[in-house]
Structures are given as C-alpha cells and as structure tokens.
Amino acid sequence: xxxxxxxxxxxxxxxxxxxxxxxxxxxxxxxxxxxxxxxxxxxxxxxxxxxxxxxxxxxxxxxxxxxxxxxxxxxxxxxxxxxxxxxxxxxxxxxxxxxxxxxxxxx
Length: 107
Known about the structure:
alpha/beta, four-stranded mixed beta sheet, globular
C-alpha cells in the first residue's frame, strides 16, 4: 500500500489475485455438498514471507480486497458487505507455507 506502482502493474496484480481466489472458490464449490455460504463468515489470511522483518498488516488490505471480490464473484456469498463477510488482519507465515484463506462461520 505504501508503494506507488504504475496503474497498469497494480491492475494486473489485482486481477491475478481476484482470478486466483475465484478459481479456488469454484474448485471448492465443485464438491456436491458445497453450496453458497449462509450467514456471516470471518475470513483470515496467511501470507508467506521470505524474511522475518517487521511488517504492517494493514498495508496488505489492497491485496485482501481483490481476494474477497474473487470469492464473491464465485458465489460463496451474495455480496461482500459486512452482512456476509468480516475480515481480520493478515498473519505472516514462513515462506515454506502457501498463501491460505481461512473461512469460518460467525455465530
């Protein structure tokens, strides 16, 4: 978020995150028992990092938004408003772990 990248690079990167989330959600929904999620769900993110230097989790929200949009495009929930989706700050994990998005229902 603190970086000032060219608009074309930003657009291409956001599109890649959105499409990756979309196709991952479609793959998950291809299981017969998986349908649209009902109620409000908490979404958390784990991003792998190559180094242990300090990072500000708030700067990753420009990455989180396209992921949420991709999940919405895939039909996991009707809309990405607070009625259906809540997020928490991302967690940084070792570089050996994959990017992961964890979704759980809020009571």
